[in-house]
Amino acid sequence: MAGPIETPKFRDPAARGLCTDCGVSRMADPTACGKACQFIKPDYPGLEAQVHGRSAQTEGDERFFGVTGAMYRAALTPARKGAQWTGLTTRLAERLLETGAVDAVLTMIPDAADRWRPRPAIITDPADMKEARGMRMGYAPLLALLEPAKAAGHRKIAVIGIPCQIYALRALESDLGFERIYVIGTPCSDNTTTANFHSFLARLTDAPDTVTYLEFRADYHVELRFTDGTQRLIPFLKLPLSDLPADFFPVTCRTCVDYTNRLADITVGYMAGEGDQWLIVRNERGQEMLDNVGNEVMLAAPGSRGKRAASVKGFVENTRLAAGGLPLRRMPDFMRGVMGWLMPKIGPRGLEFARARLEMKAAETVLHLRREEPAKIKNMVPEHVWNLAKPYGLEPHDDEAPKSEF
Asked: In 68, 77, 314, 394, which residue has its Cα 20 to 30 A from 95's Cα atom?
């Protein structure tokens, strides 16, 4: 029988800028944010060396995706009911509990009053991992669970989190006193508030309360599923993104420097999955977790098709205009239909799609920081982001170059 899931309540921190409420500011020592926050002065090479034994290479695909031991297209078989994809992320954590590798898993479950709102939870019974399946949208102080988990006597834990949460976890890891921490990372998904997400759903359908599933797919469509079992696919180009308020995505998410969760032991995403999931095994702990699921997961080499340069250049130009406050021209409706049909056929797919998305995110980070927080660029933007933005004419100005430590 499944045991109770602990969902502690935390004090609310004071409002602050460039904060995704990872949970550190809700801990006993909120000043730890100064050491832990991804948005202050991130040190990816240093933390990669600490976590993986080396920093990412500056050539090849590691410059996009971070330290990589192995990479796969993957699908859990059979797919688990209620999962966003096949349920692989939660199954990895479930197996850690089943084998006794960990005492507890720190993750998110849906809020009782709103299935889209994430609620931090400590799970100790493998059977309860099913409650963590599926996608949620909004901020939730995951790392505030660290102190309650330790107080409960848990010494070996797993954490399922997004990049800004995992960066802070790694920055504090040596001070936390846990015997072992396994990290299952998911790529960033351009987060927003749960309230904003509800307003987005209402722009997609006249029955938003009946939506049970939403996913941005690698075939350039958003998939919606409804309570009556029906499904709807919406081409990216037909999404009402230009109708969203300017602050729909906060500055933090528009300036994220780690889309692929570079400090996780294993990253489970979709971008290069071509309809399956995309796995990046980063170190021995990541390989151990994958080995734990054995033949339950089907693995294949990721594919790569198309060319990304034109798509990225167009995105960079539109972002440059938007970041400068200039009005963007909308594509005529008849062209949206044509391009919506054409992009899945000629656009980048698989690894090329993932590379494109990483370059787009790098450009977006630089352009929005120049507009919103120019004084922070020299500290906030790591070298791997500048390297991805450079082919598109974005290089650090004299006052933006990171200061040498020597």
From this structure: 68
Q: What is the pLDDT of residue 2?
A: 47
Question: What does each C-alpha distance from 68 to 160, 202, 254 come to in angstroms?
Answer: 19, 39, 25
Element (H, E) at 105: strand 104-111
User: Of residues 234 and 49, which shows the higher confidence score?
Assistant: 49
The rounded distance, in Å, linking the Cα atoms of 71 and 266 is 10
pLDDT tens column, 247-297 = 788 888 888 899 999 999 999 998 888 878 999 999 999 999 999 999 999
pTM of the model: 0.91
* C-alpha span between 378 and 403 (Å, rounded): 7
Question: Tokens for 117?
Answer: 């709102």
Q: Exposure string (b/e) for 65-80, b if CB count within 10 Å is 16 or more? A: bbbbeebbbbbbeeeb
pLDDT at 340: 46
CA angle at 296 for the pair 295 and 300, rounded to the nearest 5°: 70
Considering only CA atoms, give the Rg of the chain: 20
Q: Compute CA distances 196 → 172, 249, 250, 317, 328, whole Å.
A: 31, 9, 11, 26, 22
Using the CB atoms, write b or e for 161-174: b if 16+ within 10 Å. bbbbbbbbbbbbbe
The pLDDT value recorded for residue 401 is 81
How many CB atoms within 10 Å of residue 345? Answer: 10
Rounded average pLDDT over 340-348:
57
Cβ pair 192, 248 in contact under 8 A: yes
Kindly report the three-state secondary structure assignment for every residue of 142-193.
Answer: HHHHHHHHHHCCCCEEEEEECHHHHHHHHHHHHHHCCCEEEEEECCCCCCCC
